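Table S2 (text version). Query chain:
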Amino acid sequence: MEQKKTESDKTYWHPAFFADIQIELEEDADNLEFENEHQLGTNPMEIDVLIVKKETNTPIKKNIGKIFRTYNIIEYKSPDDSLSVDDFYKVYGYTCFYKADTPSVNSIPIQELTITFVAGKYPQRLIRHLLKDRHYTLEEKEPGIYLVHGDFLPIQIIVTKKLSKENNLWLKSLTNKLDPISAQNLITDYLAHPGNKLYQSVIDTIMRANTKIFKEVNSMDDIVMEIVQEKFDRRLKEAVEREVQKELNQKVEAATKEVAQQITRQVTQQVTQQVTQQVTQQVTQQVTQKTKLMDIISLIQKKCKKDKPLSVIADELETEPNELLSVYNIVFANPGKTVDELYELAVK
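Corresponding structure-token output:
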């Protein structure tokens, strides 16, 4: 029996897929609007990704988008999930509902809809059902891209495992079974797009899912550490900026009220500068300590789930066991708690 998709699985892979599909279609991005988890009606029904083409007469250049019309419904299955017969009818029904869920009659013509299924594995049972029971035909347009003929709606099935590395590197790499060569190609392309949040989102997910591969490829050690450090620095910078702005606004407001009738604009600027320096130093220290502790808790929690003893964890983190003992005991004694809850226990 096929297992149902869990919420944690969806949370883990779907944000990366939403970023990944935008990377794949970035050449046509000016002509496309991307919407993540489009809500249908008032009931809990969601389309994984909705892509709306702005200029209907302009064809999409990217191979995965050549069938696109104006409204394009996309269903994504994570690497360990399978695309079933019921998934096909669910998404087909969602597409019809999307067409009908409009304020005016026929404002979305059926001729302007397409359906795309994206899965890591070839859906043999579904294909057999479509060929035998629905009397459809299947055409492999190019590696990993299958066009389903015989329905009024244009339908395609994309099998990421079979996609070519040359044309669909990022979508093919959205897996937990990445090979070393693909990992190297991925890192090279990632470094060619510095500061791009879409690429950052996808690489974070792929690295978490393929930790062993990235560790085994020795030539990538420095690059991997650079990406990890970049992620930490980004989180730290955002957290510091939020806290500094919050504290700064409060202190400047208090200082301004107290001396509003006595000081000039120059003195106000001097006070603001002094407060900014003090608050920045204080908050940076606090946020740095909190971020580091939460990262340590998260790492220990993952390693505890793999039944690794304290001595092994300390060795992998390049530190002494006694430095991790108190945090390790808290994590070990509270296996069901989140990182935030474990952090609160640790600081107490």
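Notes on Table S2: The two ends are 46 Å apart (CA to CA). Confidence is low (pLDDT under 50) at residues 1-8.
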